[in-house]
Amino acid sequence: MIILIDAYNFIKSISAHKFVDDRVIQGWIATFQSYMKLRGNKVILVFDAGPSFYQTRAVLGGVEILYAGHSQTADDLIKIWLERSLGQDILLVTSDRQIRDFGLNLGVVSISSQDFYKVFRSVMEQEEVAQQKFTQTLHKTKVDHGRQDHDLDALMEQASRQLVAGQCKNEYAEPARVRDSAKMSKQDRQLMKKIDKI
């Protein structure tokens, strides 16, 4: 899945700062790099302005960063990107109603910045707890003559990860928007599928 984020909208929606400095941006880029390693989803951050008059693109640790430049806005760039990416598995993250409606008209599922942050934070916390439990449960096994049996170790590691992941999944509540699936609208069902992939 591709998570397309209206970056300034996201950062400003979840923080008390009206001005977003480079340190905050770099912190979020690092956070999304860690997330991508854990979950495998592609993250694209779209910013207004940037280092050039024209649109620029950078990739840092797998996170794609698009700057709109001075000739257009991030909103314009997001709309162009969505039109060019029809049919792909995309989750649009923005609280901008106009962009969300534009995405909806193209069949793109969107989530508000605040709701995405809640789900994202929960996922990252679950991953951290799972990693801690995994570290506590993983034990090396040795066979005769002190040689390590790498196949057995790999099998045990895989089983431990699955066991811990299952336990952690059951320990956390579902996101706030979860309702009886028979009563959910088509849009809400699509959003729930995307949330499960986050």
Topology, pairings included?
Elements: E1 2-6, H1 7-14, H2 22-39, E2 42-47, E3 56-60, E4 63-67, H3 74-84, E5 90-93, H4 97-105, E6 109-111, H5 113-137, H6 150-171, H7 186-197
Parallel strand pairs: 1-2, 1-5, 2-4, 5-6
Antiparallel strand pairs: 3-4
Key descriptive features of the protein:
single chain; 198 residues; alpha/beta; Rossmann fold; 2 domains; 6-stranded mixed β-sheet; 6 strands; 53% helix
Write up this protein:
This protein folds into two domains: about 1-115, 3-Layer(aba) Sandwich (Rossmann fold); about 120-180, no CATH class. Strands 3-4-2-1-5-6 form a six-stranded mixed beta sheet, with helices on both faces. The chain has seven helices and six strands. It has about 200 residues and is an alpha/beta fold. The termini are close together. Helix 5 (about 115-135) packs across helix 6.
Number of beta strands? 6
Bulk shape: globular
Can you tell me the number of structural domains? 2
DSSP summary: helix tally: 7
Strand content: 5-15%
Overall CATH class of the largest domain: Alpha Beta
Question: What is the CATH topology classification name of the largest domain?
Answer: Rossmann fold
- Between the first and last Cα atoms, what is the distance in angstroms? 8 Å
